[in-house]
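Structure (tokenized):
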């Protein structure tokens, strides 16, 4: 098994502007980290609960949420919910969190509720996580302040457009205020350029301006505009599972490589196990390399019965053409590539997404 960092590295994915790719980055970056052997916990602190939906957690399965954690009604360990991705878990969110701000005002240590919860969680020597990614709401509220007060560093998704660039200066001031008053150790881990359109000169101009201003804080990896990334949440899976070979998924894999390089000392603390892929970097270009052929049987025999297997397995076994269900209709998932482990044949003749029977059964 992977030797987890003790305590886990807490990264908050934040930007005061909405629609810049915070939730998409949290979901897919967490999936990529889990795939390379770093168990990851996503904490959904956005009342919209999009990260929970994007990882396939239905509303009726969200028994304990971040609301319960902030109000002191549950611990993080109690609220952790496994996802369909091995090595990736989530503390889900519901709309109840929208009323938490009014309730937090009257509570002691209102800015440190999440930090105190993490302190209790990390005292448990058996906690399995190497990384914690906190998905924040698109505003500077007590929820975002709690996340920044509990975090080690901030990952900033930045849309390659003018308004997002204008909001970046406000976010940097916010981080400075939090650092000065609540969390002196808070730092900017990196800025991720998202929704990059190579056909648009404005994207190049924004990227150039950000790199000129912030230098090495900007990741070399750029997340392109990609329809597969937009389609994936409707199926309750990350883009890396929906279509691993699309440009967006490949970009998030490279981003995970950059993040691990920045976080790890020269002697890496994360040691991939023998049955997952490892992330290697050659000439500055992260890539997934096979360590050992993974076993699909153990995931299907697991008590959780996840509907997808590890990312390396999905990359190795791909179906080049869309499948058809028993009634002749096209499978609603990706038409470019679909992991064989999620096909109808691998699930007893019933598709896990659309509940159609397989044409082969």
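Design, position by position:
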């Amino acid at each position: 098994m992977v030797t987890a960092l003790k305590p886990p590295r807490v990264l908050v994915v934040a930007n005061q502007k909405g629609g810049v790719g915070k939730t998409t980055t949290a979901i897919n970056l967490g999936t990529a980290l889990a795939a390379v052997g770093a168990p990851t916990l996503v904490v959904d602190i956005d009342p919209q609960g999009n990260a929970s939906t994007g990882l396939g957690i239905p509303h009726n399965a969200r028994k304990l949420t971040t609301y319960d954690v902030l109000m002191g009604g549950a611990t993080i360990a109690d609220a952790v919910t496994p996802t369909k991705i091995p090595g990736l878990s989530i503390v889900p969110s519901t709309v109840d969190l929208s009323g938490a701000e009014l309730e937090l005002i009257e509570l002691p240590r209102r800015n440190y509720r999440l930090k105190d919860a993490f302190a209790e969680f990390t005292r448990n020597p058996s906690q399995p996580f190497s990384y914690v990614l906190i998905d924040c709401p698109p505003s500077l509220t007590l929820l975002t302040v709690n996340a920044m007060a509990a975090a080690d560093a901030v990952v900033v998704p930045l849309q390659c457009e003018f308004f997002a660039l204008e909001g970046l200066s406000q976010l940097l001031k916010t981080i400075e205020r939090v650092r000065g008053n609540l969390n002196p150790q808070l730092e900017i881990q990196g800025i991720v350029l998202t929704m990059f359109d190579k056909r648009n000169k404005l994207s190049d101009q924004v990227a150039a301006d950000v790199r000129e201003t912030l230098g090495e804080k900007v990741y070399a990896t750029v997340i392109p505009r990609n329809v597969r990334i937009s389609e994936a949440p409707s199926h309750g899976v990350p883009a890396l599972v929906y279509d691993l070979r699309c440009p967006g998924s490949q970009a998030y894999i490279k981003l995970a490589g950059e993040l691990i390089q920045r976080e790890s000392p020269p002697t890496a603390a994360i040691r991939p196990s023998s049955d997952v892929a490892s992330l290697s970097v050659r000439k500055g270009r992260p890539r997934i390399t096979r360590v050992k052929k993974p076993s699909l049987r153990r995931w299907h025999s697991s008590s959780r019965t996840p509907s997808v297997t590890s990312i390396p397995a999905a990359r190795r076994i791909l179906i080049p053409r869309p499948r058809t269900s028993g009634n002749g209709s096209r499978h609603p998932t990706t038409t470019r590539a679909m992991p064989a482990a999620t096909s109808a044949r691998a699930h007893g003749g019933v598709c896990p997404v659309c509940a159609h029977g397989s044409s082969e059964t």
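Reviewer-requested clarification: Residues 9-289 form a domain with the Rossmann fold fold (CATH 3.40.50.300). The longest helix spans residues 162-181.
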